[in-house]
Amino acid sequence: MNISTRQGTAEDIPAIFELVKELAIYERALNQVTNNVDKMTRDYNEKLFDFFVAEVDAKIIGLCLYYYRYSTWKGKRLYMEDIIVTESMRGNGIGKILFDATVTAAKQVGCTGMMWQVLDWNTSAVNFYRKYGTNFDNEWINCNLDF
Q1: What is the C-alpha to C-alpha distance for residues 67 and 8, in angstroms, rounded to an integer?
Q2: What does the record list as coiled-coil region(s) (predicted)?
Q3: Smallest Cα–Cα separation from 20: which of 46, 41, 1, 47?
Q4: Beta pairing, strands 75-85 & 50-56
Q5: CA–CA dist 16, 8 (Å, integer)
Q6: Is 5 helix (H, G, I), strand (E, B) or coil?
Q7: In this structure, are residues 39 and 85 in contact, taking their beta carbons and an 8 Å threshold?
Q8: 3-class SS at 123?
């Protein structure tokens, strides 16, 4: 199997949105997805996020979506919103390829580190991140405000 990765483009958004929905189904939360292809395309064009895709035979089978944030303590940080690999391709090292590409990109633009969230019940993802020496924070409470 020949896996390739590349920076995503606006033309990839319909395909990556299908991966977003697949992740929402996996996380038992499809009803919480209010985003759509048009909104994602607009937000991408406004440079609110960027992404890498993984492909096999020119078909997108994985995604890592990220954006930059600023920490008053640490400076520029990359926030990794999601790594998604289509279910049939999981276990082939695609997540690692996407994660490594994202780490490299963060370093290239001078980030002081990366941040992301992982569901505590997603043991395969937790174990994957442990291999990188990830610090898991048990002190901070995640908050959100929907509009």
Answers
A1: 13
A2: 16-43
A3: 41
A4: unpaired
A5: 9
A6: strand
A7: no
A8: helix
CB 51 within 8 Å of CB 66 = yes
**Closest listed residue to residue 51, CA positions, set 89, 1, 111, 101:** 101
Question: What pLDDT was estimated at residue 122?
Answer: 83
* Per annotation, catalytic residue among 26, 68, 79, 129: 129
Eight-class DSSP state of 34: -
What's the length of the chain? Answer: 147
Q: Are 53 and 66 in contact (CB under 8 A)?
A: no
Q: Is the pTM of this model over 0.85?
A: yes
Structure tokens that stand for 15 in this block:
């395909």
Active site includes 129?
yes
Q: Which token pair is 60? A: 């997108």
Q: Identify the CA nearest to 40 among candidates 62, 61, 65, 22.
A: 65
3-state secondary structure of 66: strand
Q: Which pLDDT does position 145 carry in this prediction?
A: 67
